[in-house]
């Protein structure tokens, strides 16, 4: 999916910038459109670079967090 690739490339390219500012990015759409897949790919990208402390994933519902093993906004 082109939109998924684009979202990943925004994040991956941002990490290669020297002294980059914090990237705040909203990834939203209807259920079943691949949001969790994009986030999972980003998580893998950072873990492979041993830089997984550089990002935090949160979601508004337990279903998304259960898929990713992360936290809801309020936890």
Structure description:
This protein is mainly α. It has one domain. 47% of the residues lie in helices and 5% in strands. Helix 1 (2-15) runs parallel beside helix 2 (35-48).
Low-confidence spans: pLDDT under 50, at least 5 residues?
Answer: none
Task: Report, as a whole number of angstroms, the end-to-end distance.
Answer: 31 Å
- Helix percentage: 40-55%
Mean pLDDT: 80
Shape: globular
Fill in the keyword field for this structure:
single chain; 75 residues; two-stranded parallel ribbon; 47% helix; 5% strand; helicase; DNA repair; nucleotide-binding; ATP-dependent DNA helicase
Topology:
Elements: H1 2-15, H2 35-48, E1 58-59, H3 62-68, E2 71-72
Parallel strand pairs: 1-2
How would you summarize what this structure contains?
GO terms for molecular function: 5'-3' DNA helicase activity; ATP binding; hydrolase activity. This is ATP-dependent DNA helicase. This protein is mostly helical.
């Amino acid at each position: 999916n082109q939109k998924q690739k684009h979202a990943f490339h925004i994040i991956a390219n941002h990490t290669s910038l020297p002294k980059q500012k914090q990237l705040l990015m909203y990834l939203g759409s209807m259920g079943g459109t691949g949001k969790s897949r994009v986030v999972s790919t980003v998580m893998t990208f950072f873990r492979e670079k041993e830089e997984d402390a550089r990002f935090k994933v949160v979601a508004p519902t337990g279903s998304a967090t259960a898929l990713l093993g992360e936290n809801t906004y309020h936890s």
